[in-house]
Sequence to fold (315 residues):
Amino acid sequence: MPSEHLNVEMTFDINNPFYLTAVSWQSEEPFLRIQAQRDNSTTFVKAQNLFLRFRVMANQPRRCIGRIKRTEEGSSHQECDSVPTSGRYCAKCQTAENVNAANMHHAHRRGRAEIDKTMKAYLSHPHRLYLAAFRDGSIKVGTTRGSSGNTRLIEQGAWLATYVAEVEDGFAVRELEDEITEQLGVIQAVDTRRKILGHLNYLSNQELAQSLLQMSSETEKVLRERLGTRGSLIDEPWYNPMVDAEVWGNLAPYPGSIKEGAHELTIHSMVGRLAACHKTGFSDTFLVDTQSLLTLPLETGTFEVDELALQESLF
Ligand SMILES: [Zn+2]
Fold:
């Protein structure tokens, strides 16, 4: 559980301008993490059924989304008020994120002695190895800290998954993860483009379950040889809460760019950072990538919203 100070707003009542800094999951429910420009305060707004009328402000600076702070207890978010230099981060946060990523990635290769003390403490904790299936048919192998909770799976927008093994620490689990990739060719990341295309043109849950089952049994075979005394096989299934939701079975791409202009949407539900949205006057449910809004100065209000150029995309 992230140690973020949880201040949940059930209605969208925030000082303008504000920034979306993340989609944050708590008990498998999505919240938008919002940072007010005025005092940098952070608010969590429940995303499900959220009515959102917002405008991207042209005359305000963008803002860095901040960085992850890892400690022995877990990870938490550190706000930042700098302007991003490239992408989503300022130079300082980008460096911190790069160091985090490199430490995580090379934890086992460099050896425990060479890892930063905080990261070492963070990794000296049981981890689980999982296989996750996405709706385009991609299957990835991944690891998550702790022996309970499904935050990693749900924040990535996995559709079906299997926890294959529980392993004594973050060093050993990464070795095994690389072993699975090497021996079975299972990838370790699925890009958002594939996730989006998967929702618009998906394989059935049954097809996905079948290929996940097959890959899980191959993975177990490898682990039986490699795991030793460092952990145990668990074979625990997981499903995204939206797996049977009708609205995720019939989505249309959002016919416009939410990076500019004024928009009015109601978020029906979310899978990872992707939102299924309703819009008054339209029967379609639109797929929106909320990550497009990161760093942008936003405001709410009663202004007119942009007309969607639906004719162009549908006829
Ligand atoms: Zn920053």
Remarks:
- The first strand starts at residue 8 and ends at 9.
